[in-house]
């Protein structure tokens, strides 16, 4: 039976989510795949540079030196830029990680930032020392979160995609608005809690499936006792969507009621002035 390593991390909303860690074996296999791809890229780039340099500088004795210098620069860009570009633009994945169904995320399942990607990959040089990631493997094996030095300083962790495990992905049963939300009483929901709901709904698609499911369920469990009239059988994420709709509706009604009262007050004042000045020499009162 395969052991699943899990650690709990807190989100900015102070809600703890459980994250399934990628194992050492899957990370090592993914790294080998990425290295093979990088070596292939370097070989192709080197061949192209050699052909171009030979065509441009026919008969020159400095061709070999120029090609060697450009090859070194190209190799550095491939080795360093490969992980940065893939991890940032492919949501924490490289071809190797995608093949092993793992990816990089920030602590708590949050999406990666460019600074986190740069930090963890710049420090890859330290993790590589003295050869073949010896330092990185030692550090990674000695902590429960399976982090190397770059992960500690970058605030990142390598996790499983979790899409194939039951209970981790989240499916909204009915994407259409739940019409009964108009009867919900959300007066017990504070402004801070409403903000938490909207922040979750805004960034849920960028969260890992496990973090999205866990965070949504925790928020829903916190708010269900405060919302009167809601169907207790609604899925958590659907419930939160309609809490946001219901609170918006409540604010809209309150604004409309305020404007209606202001209009009534103004009309009453106008009538009083007309009674005091039957000839109509009165000026309209401004709306307060």
Describe this structure as you would to a colleague.
With 288 residues, the protein is mainly α. It has 2 domains: 6-160, no CATH class; 179-276, no CATH class. 56% of the residues lie in helices and 7% in strands. The chain has 10 helices and 4 strands, in the order ββαααβααααβααα. It has helices at 24-56, 63-89, 95-99, 114-122, 124-128, 134-141, 149-154, 191-203, 209-223, 236-276; strands at residues 6-10, 16-20, 102-106, 156-160. It has a two-stranded antiparallel sheet with strand order 1-2. A two-stranded antiparallel sheet has the order 3-4. α2 packs across α4 and α8 (191-203) crosses α10. Residues 163-178 have low confidence and may be disordered.
Task: Give structural attributes.
288 residues, two-stranded antiparallel ribbon, 10 helices, 7% strand
What general outline do the C-alpha atoms trace?
Answer: elongated
What is the share of helical residues? 55-70%
Outline the biggest β-sheet.
2 strands, antiparallel
Number of DSSP E strands: 4
Strand coverage percent: 5-15%
Q: Roughly how many Å is the radius of gyration?
A: 30 Å
> N-to-C SSE series?
EEHHHEHHHHEHHH
Strand order of the largest sheet: 1-2
- Helix segment count? 10
